[in-house]
Amino acid sequence: MKYALPLVLALLVHPVANAAVGNVQAGKETFARLCASCHRVGPSARGAFGPQLNGVFGRKAGSTADYRYSDAMKASNVVWSVATLGAFVQSPGKVVPGTKMRFWGMSDPQQIADLLAYLRTFQ
Q1: At what angle do helices 109-120 and 82-90 cross, to 10 degrees?
Q2: 3-state secondary structure of 79
Q3: Which pLDDT value is given to residue 14?
Q4: What is the pTM of this model?
Q5: 22 Cβ contact list (under 8 Å, min separation 6)
Q6: pLDDT tens-digit profile of 6-26?
Q7: Of 13, 19, 45, 85, which sits with the fewest C-beta atoms within 10 Å of its C-beta?
Q8: What is the DSSP-derived secondary structure letter of residue 33?
Q9: Cα 70 from chain centre
C-alpha cells in the first residue's frame, strides 16, 4: 500500500483521465518513436528491454511472465487502465517510485491519449 498515495495523487491531476479519444495513427507514430526501442506489441510481442504491452489494460502491473520487473512494480498493486497508464506514461516515477522504466515521461495530454488509443488496439 505504500504506492497508494502517489497513485491517487497522480490520478487526481492527470489530464488524460477525461481527455477526448486519441488518434490511433498518431499513437502508432508515438509508440514507434518513443516506446518501441524497449516495448513490443502485436502477435509476436515478447518482453525485451521492457515488457510486451499486448492486453495491458486490465492487467496487474508487473505480472507478465516474460519480463523481470522491479520489486517496486510487482508490489505496486496497480491495475493498468486509461487513467493509471496515462499517469504512468506522464510520470513513471510518481506512479511507481522505484520503477526500472528509464523514461522521464510525456507532458502532452493529447500525445498520451493517442498512445493509449493505439495500445487499446492490442487488447
Answers
A1: 130
A2: strand
A3: 46
A4: 0.83
A5: 110, 112, 113, 114, 115, 116, 117, 118
A6: 555 454 444 454 455 899 999
A7: 13
A8: I
A9: 15
Q: How confident is the model at residue 2 (pLDDT cuts 50, 70, 90)?
A: low
CA–CA separation, 55 and 77 (whole Å): 17
Which residue in this structure is represented by grid cell 522521464? 104
Enter the C-alpha cell of residue 57.
489494460
Please provide residue 13's backbone torsions phi and psi, each rounded to the nearest 5 degrees: -100, 0
Residue 18, number of CB atoms within 10 A of its CB: 9
CATH of 4-120, one of 3.40.50.1970, 1.10.238.10, 3.30.230.10, 1.10.760.10: 1.10.760.10
Rounded Cα distance between 82 and 28, Å, is: 16
